[in-house]
Every structure is written in structure tokens, then in C-alpha cells.
Amino acid sequence: MMQFTYQRSADITGALHHMRNASAAKFIGGGTNLLDLIKADVERPAELLDINPLPLDQVTEQDDGHLRIGALVTNSDVAWHPLVEARYPLLSRAILAGASPQLRNMATTGGNLLQRTRCYYFYDKATACNKREPGSGCSAIGGCNRMHAILGASPSCIAVHPSDMCVALAALEAEVRVQSCEGERAIPFADFHRLPGDTPERDTNLREDELITAVELPVEGFAQHHSYIKVRDRSSYAFALVSVASGLVIENGLIQKARIALGGVAHKPWRRPEAEALLEHQQPTEALFKAVAEELLQGAEGQGQNNFKIELARRVIIRSLKEAAGLEVAS
Ligand SMILES: Cc1cc2nc3c(=O)[nH]c(=O)nc-3n(C[C@H](O)[C@H](O)[C@H](O)COP(=O)(O)OP(=O)(O)OC[C@H]3O[C@@H](n4cnc5c(N)ncnc54)[C@H](O)[C@@H]3O)c2cc1C
Ligand code: SF4
């Protein structure tokens, strides 16, 4: 049996100092991913520091109109918060497309950002996996890779990031606020998660001693024109094969601003500013959306079993943009 100690902390400074001096300690939020990883013997923390008593469980509107979501606000409380529903319905939709009500009631905002890949081999210690054991190899390359990446993969790892919420946060251009004993910093969402390269064991640019304190949303929430479409094997309780979050600002019949992020296709939510730029100052048409899909999927490459994802992603991008723009979508 694996032995670990358990502490609770109600004070941010105390938690950060504790973490700096502890070896092999992990923060625990809702525990919905970390506990599974401990049971599978993939994570072996010597200590769990329960951060649920920290004062990070509020959604607050800032003076400049930004919305600050504390790291301990549960996924359910974010999705159903009146300000999120009114100003960022794209985020509510994405969260409600994920997991189950029970899981969303436990899962926290910080924990969702740091949930680990659902690659089958990552959870199976009998197999080689560079993310779990650097240098051991990647069993998914040439193996079962139906769920795996078509963009941004490397010869070391072809895993995808599993979150729905993060796809919406990428399209919304959120900022992640983090704190350590050295102070606070803000990480733009596009720089938070990493591509695997030759260090797939590192999912994000967060340091071990840093605590996520909040996620901040900019004023523009695409409340009028947005879409989140998730395609999966079952209609609930399944991770995305492909998901697309789209947000448009349309004035006088022309698109003024566009943000699109893809989930289920890469090691991080996938954006390509060149594709978004194609939409600006244009009339929304299906022909334009087809060109945007081609641009977004530049360099897409299948791994064998997941080749179907390229055509699937193309179709879901076009459908999501049509839905966001209010064009007729075939049922
Ligand atoms: C059966 C099942 C189905 C699921 N389906 C989906 C789905 O369809 N879509 C989807 O998006 N998700 C899905 N999930 C994943 C779920 O959303 C995540 O497990 C959850 O969001 C993780 O949040 P948590 O608070 O429980 O994290 P925890 O398990 O507590 O922590 C996860 C990681 O984050 C770290 N951590 C937590 N909080 C902080 C913080 N504030 N600062 C620094 N580090 C921190 C922990 O140390 C740990 O490494 C599913 C999960 C399960 C079990
Ligand atoms: S894809 Fe990544 S997580 Fe999966 S087996 Fe390969 S190295 Fe491990």
C-alpha cells in the first residue's frame, strides 16, 4: 500500500511556504483526477496538501469589467454562475459538455487546467510511456491511437489534452493567475499548456511550487455569437474526439473579431491566429469557413487509427462557425 501524509491549509502564504519545503508533495483540489492517478500508481505523492479551505472559491467582477474565477470554484458553480451564463455562455456550454454532474460538483477550476491526458498507456504501468516514465518510449505510436493527436505531436508523445473547459478558455483568451513564495504572475492561456516536444512529462509551464489562484476572463465574452461543439463516442460522460469553441463579434454584417480553439486534437487547446485573421472584416459565409478550416488544420497528420479526425475536425469547425454566425446548420 502506498503511504502518504495529508494536510489541510487555510492560508495561501502558509500553503506556498509548506510546498516550497516539502518534497514530493501535491496540492489536491476536487481530487477527481489526482486520486485516480494515485490508485493507478502513476502519481506517488509523499504528501497531499488539501487546498479546499483557501479563500479562492469566489467569482468576482473586477472594476475594469474582467471576471475573476477563483481556482477553487467548482466546474458546476462556474457553469451556472449568472455572470458566466450571461457574458461567457461559451464557457458554460463547454463545461456542461464535460464529465458528469457529480464530477463537475467536485472538480475545481485549477484542477481542470492540470488534469492529465487520458491516453490509455499513460494509466497502464505495464506499457512504455514517455510522459509517465521519460525515455521509456511511446506505446501509442503504432499502437491504439484512435483518441490521439493530429496536430503538434512529436516522436516522443502523441497525447491530447482532455479538457473541455480549457478549449473555451483558450478561445476566450483567458489569463491564468499563479502565485509562489517569489510572488505572483499571470500566464496568457495560450502559453499555459505545452506541446510535447522531447519533454512530454511536462504538460504546462507552471512550476512545481506555484499555486493557481484564479483564471481571469477579458471583457469580450462573445455572448452574441458563440458555439461549442463536442463530438465523442457517447453522447455523455466521454472525452472529446474533436471539439471546437468559436467566438465571433459581428457588426453590420461583417466579422470584426474571431477566436477559434480546437480540443481533442493536440497536447494543448489548438489555435492558429492566421486562421482567425482570415475571418476579420469578412461576411460570414460557408465558403469562408471552409477556407478557415483548411488553415486551422495546416500540418494535420493522422497516426493510423485516428486518421478520421482530420475530416471530422474540418466538418466540426465549419459547423461551429456557422452556428456562431447564426447561419443555417443542417440537423
Ligand atoms: C470519469 C471521468 C470523466 C471525465 N470527463 C471529462 C470530460 O468529458 N471533460 C473534461 O473536461 N473533463 C473530464 N473529466 C476530468 C475532470 O474534469 C477533471 O478530473 C477535473 O477537472 C480535475 O479537477 P480537480 O479539482 O478534481 O483536480 P485534482 O484531481 O484535485 O487535481 C488535478 C491536478 O491539479 C493540481 N491542482 C489542483 N488544484 C491546483 C491549484 N489551484 N494550483 C496548482 N495545482 C493544482 C493537483 O496537484 C493535481 O496535479 C472527467 C473525469 C472523470 C474521472
Ligand atoms: S502518447 Fe504520450 S501519454 Fe500516450 S503513451 Fe505516448 S508518451 Fe505516453
Polypeptide structure, described:
The protein is α+β, with helices and mostly antiparallel strands and 331 residues long. Among the domains are: 48 residues, Uridine Diphospho-n-acetylenolpyruvylglucosamine Reductase, domain 2 (2-Layer Sandwich); 100 residues, CO dehydrogenase flavoprotein, C-terminal domain (Enolase-like, domain 1, 2-Layer Sandwich), CATH 3.30.390.50. The protein contains 12 helices and 11 strands. A 5-stranded antiparallel sheet has the order 4-5-8-6-7. α5 packs antiparallel against α8, α10 runs antiparallel to α11 and α11 crosses α12. The N and C termini lie far apart (52 Å). Bound molecules: flavin-adenine dinucleotide and iron/sulfur cluster. The site of iron/sulfur cluster (SF4) has 14 residues, from loops.
Give the strand tally: 11
**Beta strand %:** 15-25%
| Count of separate DSSP helical elements | 12
Rg computed from alpha carbons, rounded to a whole number of angstroms: 20 Å
Indicate the overall shape: globular
What distance separates the N and C termini?
A: 52 Å
Can you list the strand order of the major beta sheet?
A: 4-5-8-6-7
Associated small molecules: flavin-adenine dinucleotide, iron/sulfur cluster
Classify the secondary structure makeup into a structural class.
alpha+beta
Compact description:
With 331 residues, the protein is an alpha+beta fold. The chain is 28% helix and 19% strand.
How are the SSEs placed, and which strands pair?
Blueprint: E1 5-8, H1 12-21, E2 25-28, H2 34-39, E3 47-50, E4 59-61, E5 67-70, H3 75-79, H4 82-87, H5 89-96, H6 101-106, H7 109-114, H8 165-171, E6 175-180, E7 183-188, H9 189-192, E8 211-217, E9 226-231, E10 242-251, E11 254-263, H10 273-279, H11 286-296, H12 308-325
Parallel strand pairs: 1-3, 2-3
Antiparallel strand pairs: 4-5, 5-8, 6-7, 6-8, 9-10, 10-11
Helix pairs in contact: 5-8, 10-11, 11-12
Bound molecules: flavin-adenine dinucleotide and iron/sulfur cluster.
